[in-house]
Amino acid sequence: MNSLSLSPFIVSFKLAFWTTLLLLPVGMWFGRWLAYTQCRAKPWIESLVLLPLVLPPTVIGYYLLAIFSPDTVTGQWATQLFGQPLVFTFQGLVVASLIVNIPFIVQPMQLAYGGMPIEIREAAWVSGLSAMETWWHVELPQIWPGILAAATLVFSHTLGEFGVVLLVGGNIEGITRTVSIAIYDHVQAFEMQLAGWFSLSLVLFSLLALLLVRLTGHRSGNAQKYA
Amino acid sequence: MIKLFRLFSNSSDEDTALDATRGLPKAKPVRILYRACLLFVTMTAITLGGSAFSASTETKPAATNKPPHIALASSFRSLWPTLMHAYIKSSGSSLPLTSFASSGLLSTQILRGAPFELFISADLSSITRIKNAGKTLTPPYTLARGTLSLVSLPTHQSSWGTVATMESLRELIKSGNSLKIAIPNPRHAPYGIAAQQALQAAGLWPLPKGSLLNAENASQALQYVLSGAADIAIVPTTLVTRHTLDITVSSIDPASYEPVIHHLVLLAQAGEQAQQLYAWMKSSSALKIMQQFGLSAP
How high is the ipTM of this complex? Predict the structure, then answer.
């Protein structure tokens, strides 16, 4: 009980893994669309995408609680869809985490696509490549540093998320107690040393992740602007 | 899929052609790396996409041998390790998983479907709420009676120099000292309601503007004094009975507030181990430990 438990690390990494994995394809597609679209609603959509970045996590947590609560119609739909209520479960945490992280994936992807000259794509089309082939052979190698930056941002940000996780997850050991919640919990239990170890591990990991993005960026030459 | 495979294993001359097309030669290892990663991500997403959610549903309790999830009022934090030490020694069961918060907050979480199996609250109304929603298996069992203590920084660190009592607190405030007083939030923490009643009885309610700090729960109220954010806190006696912290403690007259009574209830999702713990919590050996931490028999 008073020793350093690994379970918050496992919960945190599981959450970060699923958030990144599920968000990456959607974010790539959406960021690409946003970068090239001429749609008039673009400023509106961009603002909506950025909203989770500026809103306090408690606001997002409040709405998610309201939406997922088993007493509400939407909550009953969610319960049917996932086979159990979403609040205070790991699945609910993943859903919440996906929403909170939308700006962290869409923004770098939009920047990455925006930074790629349109002529490159046109040249690929002229050379007879299909849209899919162009994406695979031409676009991906160009935006690769952007993808890495986005994935690392989402992963590290999920590890650090606190407000939404506490509201939607509720600090349940082994299920929704992430590292950041464990730090809060240890401080409340006057176990400052344990809180210190958890905090230090987060600092080191986040530093390593950011360093990885920077180093990869330098190597491929043009990634700094996405990170 | 075939196309994907073809693209992945494309011949080298196609690559050279492409490099020529876009005029931006790329280091080969990087390209292989990103393709490998992408393929990995795609494959994992396809194979695990659906099963991910079903795989993690195994955390559901039910009658398995998994350790039970217990929801506990924050005032139980200090005595819980000692209680569990005795419990595990006598029963050989595994250590329950715990969540500490204010009783009101925990009952809200249980109402919303949190997977707890046993609930120890610091009041009856929190349990009545979940009982009315049909989330309990047993009627509430009266576990123990708790009291309040006044906690302040050690005398050598405080500006007033003596042990603070409710009487000296009144004098200090009346003579214009601006003190910060932390109590558990009365809106959802039972010990906070009692603390407010004790302040009312001492003629100190409402406190001067800017004096009151509402802590999220009992434990955080104490934390505020330890961190120096508050001068004084009113907290459950359990939290400061067998402490090793550098604080001064004085008891508050139990007649000045309504008694805080801890209740125990088995929740609808309780498994075998939770039932075992429920029975042990009602035993005399559990009561003996609770008494060591300043709780009294109901």
Answer: 0.75
